[in-house]
Amino acid sequence: MDRKSGGRRFEPDRGLQGEDPRSVTTGGFDVYGRSDAAGTPGVGSGGVRVAGDLQFRWELSGSGGVTYRIADGTSEHETYIGYCTDALADLLYAMTGLYGNSSGERFSFDRESMETRWLLRRQGTDVAIAVFEFPDGGTSWGSADETGGTLLWRSVQPRGVLCHAVVEAADAVLREHGEAGYLEKWMRHPFPVAALQDLQRLHRREDGCRHERCRKGIGPTSNGTVP
Ligand SMILES: [Zn+2]
Fold this sequence. Notes:
There is one protein chain. The longest helix has 28 residues, at 159-186. The protein is of the alpha+beta class and 227 residues long. The strands form 2 sheets. Strands 4-5-6-7 form a 4-stranded antiparallel β-sheet. It has helices at residues 34-37, 87-97, 137-140, 159-186, 193-207, 212-216, and strands spanning 55-60, 66-71, 76-81, 104-111, 114-123, 126-134, 150-158. The protein has a single domain, classed as Secreted effector protein pipB2 fold (2-Layer Sandwich), CATH 3.30.2450. The chain is globular, with a radius of gyration of 17 Å. Helix content is 30%, strand content 24%. Zinc ion (ZN) binds at residues 164, 203, 209, 211, 214. Residues 164, 203, 209, 211, 214 line the site of zinc ion.
């Protein structure tokens, strides 16, 4: 499936551009160094939270597009995306990629002149998330590194926590709007049912999530209806 975002994976020997905190624009958010990011699970250090207090919401707006918000208890990132790309599918497929052999995932949201790029890098059972903004997406889209971008937000989360939050947010969208309602608002792309099902299945199986909805596998059925 066309992943829209370029879907380029990390080369294993490459870090995130701007990994050195001194070289990035933080936009007012705390930035931690590489050593902090590999901290003991359950122990926050240098402003990094690794506990399961991640919040993620994906809220369709009335006129098409979505406002998403992600917060880890330390800082948050919120932005608006228009409906031109299959943004929710791009997000879900990137999360699904975290269950494969790749060292990371990279995808972008088209913000109509601007580009918001997510980098996901695996660190053992954790995922380092970095969100960059580029002022001219026409130039930056697909670029090899994050030169020219501004770091908006970053966090380190256990994969299960991150993917649970994304599954839950996408599931909430489907329950609120249904497939028909979603298509009415998003217009160019249907709700990514298959992508959500894939991620749900992997998350349930690989992360062993104990959340009731994950254990029961509640979500869109094979014919796309919501139970
Ligand atoms: Zn779960």
